[in-house]
Write a sequence for this structure.
């Protein structure tokens, strides 16, 4: 009888650890996927009139929407609570009334379970070559 209880407990703990590991790795994979082009797709080098800017910059509205859509679409299957904050800095000019940043910081926090959170900060900058 003791062996049955022992095996059932070990099996339940194994499944719980597998689920937690799978959830953590899924969130990590989604976060690391952020580096694969979400920010590159939001870089602009020309203003509204077609004139070349002195330095490429991030399109602020497009960038925030792209980051939010990326996390929303990739974390939806897991049902995980998360928070994303995008901060833009180091402004290099304006187009109309819109400031054009060259540095973007994304702070990502996801709740894995009641006692474990996943927190990461990614910084993307555009440098002249």
């Amino acid at each position: 009888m003791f062996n049955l209880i022992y095996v059932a407990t070990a099996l339940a703990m194994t499944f719980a650890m597998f689920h937690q590991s799978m959830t953590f790795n899924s969130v990590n994979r989604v976060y690391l996927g952020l580096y694969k082009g979400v920010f590159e797709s939001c870089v602009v080098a020309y203003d509204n009139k077609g004139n070349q800017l002195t330095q490429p910059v991030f399109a602020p509205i497009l960038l925030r929407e792209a980051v939010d859509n990326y996390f929303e679409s990739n974390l939806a299957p897991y049902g995980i609570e998360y928070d994303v904050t995008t901060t833009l800095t180091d402004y290099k000019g304006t187009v109309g009334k819109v400031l054009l940043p060259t540095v973007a910081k994304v702070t990502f926090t996801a709740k894995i379970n009641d006692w474990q959170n996943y927190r990461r900060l990614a910084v993307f900058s555009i440098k002249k070559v």
Q: What stands out?
A: The helical segments are 2-33, 60-75. Residues 91 and 101 are 4 Å apart (CA to CA). The chain has a mean pLDDT of 88.
